[in-house]
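Appendix B, example 12.
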Amino acid sequence: MGLYATLGIIGAYILLSLILLPIQYRYISQLKENTKRQRELGVTQEEYYDKMSFESQELHVNAQGNPLFLGANLFASLLYNWKQKKK
């Protein structure tokens, strides 16, 4: 019984990660664009994030630090890097 529960939880987490993958992929793509914009402006990352609204900062913290998004972030990062290498 314990093995089935563990496999069910792992399966549900992988399914959740795959469902969240498109959302996290767009988020990572936007982060890369923000990094380019930050470099063009010539400001440090700290200054760039200080200029963000509180809501945007909270969204970044939640999207980067939430354990539920860890799998989706990993898959989206791998997919983004793979697509960028193909270009």
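The chain has one domain: 2-86. The mean pLDDT is 87.
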